[in-house]
Amino acid sequence: MDIRTTTDEDFDAFVGTVHAAFGHFPETPVEGGGLWWSALEAERCLLARTADGRPVGTAATYPFELTLPGERPVPVSGVTAVGVLPSHRRQGVLSSMMRHQLEEVRARGEFLSVLLASEALIYRRFGYGPATHTSRLTVPRHRAALDAPRGGAVTGAPGAGPDGGSVEILRGAECRELLEEVYDRYRRTQPGALSRPHRWWALRAGQPPVSPAPRYVAVHRDTDGVPDGYASYSIESGTLTVDETIATDDAVFTALARFVLGHDLVSQVVFKHVPPGHPLRWQLADLRAGEVSGDTDWLWVRLLDVPRALTARGWSLDGELVLDVQDPFLGEHDRHLLTVRDGKADCVPTDRDPDLSLDISDLGSVYLGGTAPSTLVRAGHIRAHRPGAAALADALFRAERAPHCLHWF
């Protein structure tokens, strides 16, 4: 089997193979783009071929930035389009491609790789761990009233925002530059958020509001008229579905939520991609009106250089831990002394006894602060070697804001 980077000449073979792996047929190109794979770059795509030249497997990456705790953006590779033809599964094709791909990521000098897992059982063995979660919130329209904030009532017309801001309705096709700018400001402050390169917006690749699917967009502007949030939505069969809500702070999110919850002639409002622990349910006058469903993992993280990864993120508590990290897929085993002082970390090799022993995939799960190390200790994934080690790890890895990722790739 031969694994090599695609060229422009064999890109069509790549697209055909990944579709065949999932039993789909490529969509017919339309004017103005909008195909999900149109943002792929040939030089970041891998094609696996048999000895006689037949394509049987694919894997690719997108160049993104991932925002780490402490509002620190770093370059990452976003793994996508991973597939093996049904006729060649369980023959080592996938493992060979994933190993080849990780070697390429390291060769580019990157220390993190991320993906969205089509199946949860596949990617742990390659060192990826689920690092962010998301859910949907469904609110019946007749129970959608927001509670009055303590010390005052919710005021203002449906188009009014907090502190005199405003909400206006635009069509997605007419405000792409605005959406791009607002999203970019948001993702730079949200741990776990990925960048959306201009290439995505220009080619309309991905899911709404990036794709050409028709959407209305509620745009929030501050008192100076500067856009600082939006909610992309559609209405079908009486259900208003919000694809994503982007807000630079909670007050803007509340203004956008109040706007869509007040929409006439709908029976329910569905918010997709609500972050864990979001206060919106508590803002409903009827606490039971918000039904949470579809709670699932979203962004999976894979560390390729533990010291670089741990020193790249921000920290809010001082302390030190010895981490014994196994990486079975790459055949690596290292012990690291993590020392945090004044929000910065130092990570060096050590032969001291470990505080925690863990797999590289579990380190990926706790890395952004969305999963407490003690949870994985209780689950039997991480081994704590002394009393208090898990509690200290919880305090160290905890982020000021829960990590959340909205971007689909």
TrEMBL record:
Coiled coil: none annotated. The keyword Ribonucleoprotein does not apply. CDD domains: NAT_SF. Gene3D superfamilies: 3.40.630.30, SCP2 sterol-binding domain (3.30.1050.10). Keywords: Acyltransferase, Transferase. Pfam families: Acetyltransf_17 (PF17668), Acetyltransf_9 (PF13527), SCP2_2 (PF13530). Acetyl-CoA binds at V82, G83, V84, R90, Q91, G92, V93, L94, S95, S118, E119. Residues 1-149 form the N-acetyltransferase domain. Transmembrane segments: none annotated. Belongs to the acetyltransferase Eis family. HAMAP family: Eis. Homohexamer; trimer of dimers. This is GNAT family N-acetyltransferase.
